[in-house]
Description:
Blueprint: H1 24-36, E1 40-45, H2 48-53, E2 65-68, H3 73-86, E3 93-99, H4 101-105, H5 108-117, E4 122-127, H6 166-171, E5 178-183, H7 187-202, E6 209-214, H8 218-221, H9 228-237, E7 244-247, E8 250-253, H10 261-265, H11 276-297
Parallel strand pairs: 1-2, 1-3, 3-4, 4-6, 5-6
Antiparallel strand pairs: 5-7, 7-8
Helix pairs in contact: 1-7, 3-5
Amino acid sequence: MKKKNKNQDFEGFAKGHNACAGCGAAIAMRHLMKIAGANTIVAIATGCMEVVSTVYPLSSWEVPCIHSAFENVAATASGIELALKKQGKRKINVIAIAGDGGTFDIGLQALSGMLERGHRILYVCYDNEAYMNTGIQRSSATPLHAETTTSPYGKIHGKIEPKKNMPLIVASHGKNIYVATASVGYLEDFKRKVKKALRHIHKKNGGPAYLQVLCPCVLGWKIPTNITIQIARKAVNCRAYPLFEIENGKLTLQEFPEEKIEDYLKLQGRFSNLAKKEIIKLKKFFESEYSKLRNFTNR
């Protein structure tokens, strides 16, 4: 008789939270926790997922969960990991969770320290490409020409700076870090990488793991609630959000059926005002970044 997996019916991130219908980040949290299982401690930064899941006196987390300030979730998780190590409890998953604002911007210092010290923590960035929780302000994860409430309007449309390449910044901290990008548009790939990241932090001579998952925001991206998965998949296929892994300093780029960038942009209100020249500029930028990743792969 086949032995039943003790985590088979475990959700971890329970229904009944206050996330918007179609929220990409809530989808990511559910599948993350189904893989991580009950033997997990979560540290979560202020942001969309903290706000929707921890409304006092309720919680959607079925594991111990510590709310951190916007900027210090990596430091909180580092303390948890060291306390468990001191107690000889080495097999518990320590997961730090933050949005792109709490990762790319105001959480970068604590994250860098966590990586440099080599803490055995899985850090998950749910990347919805802006500060969605506080009013759709631009972050350094916001793509070029995407409109936010703090981006220029007029002759220039949207953000004037390109997106920061956070995974490569993380990888530059050393070879003993598992780094991967994912998308809720490809959930099986996301879950595979969660499993791989958890194996990495627990293996002999293991180290930190960083997983960045694209999570469309219905409000910020100005999309219908029923196309979250579709648009997250198109982002990968048009090379706006390449999927890759970095292990032992070696980058592996994943190839997917190529789609036109126009088909991705036209579904989103945040790109609705773009001129043709701006679309061409975006396309060239995505192609250039993809070529760089290909060059890293071939080294």
